[in-house]
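User: Sequence recovery, please. Input:
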């Protein structure tokens, strides 16, 4: 059931963001896929609160675009951070974007570089460009600080209920 909820909510999030959603697995129940945005939030929030990194990331996306919830960049950062702390590279990349642009957090190039670096190291192809873009605006000392933070970073484990 958890995978069915994830797949259904992911489809809703991607559709709202203008992306093509992958075909849902055969186990997805139609009402999940066809539910409205507020229902999707109601379904995904408990998973996010239980520490599911994908659910946290998707809830962050929903807050970023205002899908089923009021648009709120601070909430976006909160949920991206929870997922990024667990090592989800898409969340790490998007958190880098938030720090780079100062959306929901004060603009911080060191933090942006850190999160872009972690996402790039985990295979996120967009993150490398983001890291290079922010590095062009940083001093050598800031880059060194960001690199040190990236080397010291370890994913946080979430206790499962």
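Assistant: Recovered sequence (161 residues):
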């Amino acid at each position: 059931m958890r995978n069915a909820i994830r797949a259904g909510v992911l489809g809703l999030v991607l559709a709202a963001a203008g992306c093509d959603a992958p075909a849902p697995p055969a186990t997805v129940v139609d009402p999940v896929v066809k539910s409205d945005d507020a229902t999707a939030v109601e379904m995904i929030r408990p998973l996010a609160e239980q520490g599911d990194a994908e659910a946290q990331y998707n809830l962050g996306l929903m807050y970023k675009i205002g899908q089923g919830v009021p648009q709120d960049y601070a909430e976006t950062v909160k949920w991206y951070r929870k997922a990024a702390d667990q090592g989800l590279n898409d969340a790490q990349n998007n958190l880098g974007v938030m720090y780079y642009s100062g959306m929901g957090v004060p603009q911080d190039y060191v933090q942006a570089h850190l999160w872009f670096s972690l996402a790039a190291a985990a295979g996120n192809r967009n993150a490398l460009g983001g890291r290079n873009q922010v590095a062009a605006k940083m001093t050598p000392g800031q880059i060194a600080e960001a690199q040190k933070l990236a080397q010291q970073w370890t994913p946080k484990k979430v206790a499962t209920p």
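The CA atoms of residues 92 and 121 lie 11 Å apart.
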